[in-house]
Amino acid sequence: MKQFGIWAIALVFVSCLAGNVFSQTITVDLDDPDYYRPFYDPELVYENGAYQADFTDTFIFNLTESGSLSFTLSEKDSREGFFPEWVDITDASFGNGPAPTTVTPWEKADPYYSGSNLVSTYTWDDLAAGQYNLSVAGEAYAKSYPSTHYWMEDVSFQATGPAPVPEPATMTLAGLGLLGIAGLSRKRKQQ
After folding, report:
1. For the chain, what are the domain ranges?
2. Cα separation of 31 and 52, whole Å?
3. What's the pLDDT tens digit per position in 96-144?
4. Is 51 in contact with 41 (CB distance < 8 Å)?
5. Do the Cβ atoms of 23 and 58 come closer than 8 Å?
6. To the nearest 5 percent, what fractions of the chain are helix, strand and coil?
7. Contact indicator for 59, 96 with CB cutoff of 8 Å
């Protein structure tokens, strides 16, 4: 019994050190280009004078055909002023797919406004049909009120489609043309 008590205390201690990690699973509709991810109480926990949370969200993309995929992640970034709040996205990657072809560096959407969101665009040029789970991880922070957010914007999918299959009539014409060329070359050799 004493050993069980020690394990229980150790488990509580490790849980306190690990902090709270929250998550949401969102199935992406490719016809809806924007997704808003809010953070409120109880996700944002008040500690050290501010509301904070670590998060790992999963966006599920169901691709029925192969093609290219792109979207922009937009972080809330109001670090200046009386009521600072922000979201820092530290990782965005497919757990079961290729790395993005291109990722733009994080930059201010409006460089002249200090409260402007930070944006980064992710692009995959050649994804096969299937289900892809995008993991977006980071931390959220709000100083005075438990509320902040990030966006997934401009979700775009362009299907590449299968290679065109020639019709039987086209194949027949091509075959007859090759036979005609072979016949002409044979006739020239005989003369």
Report:
1. 21-179
2. 33
3. 778 888 898 888 888 777 777 889 999 998 888 889 999 999 999 999 8
4. yes
5. yes
6. 20, 45, 30
7. no
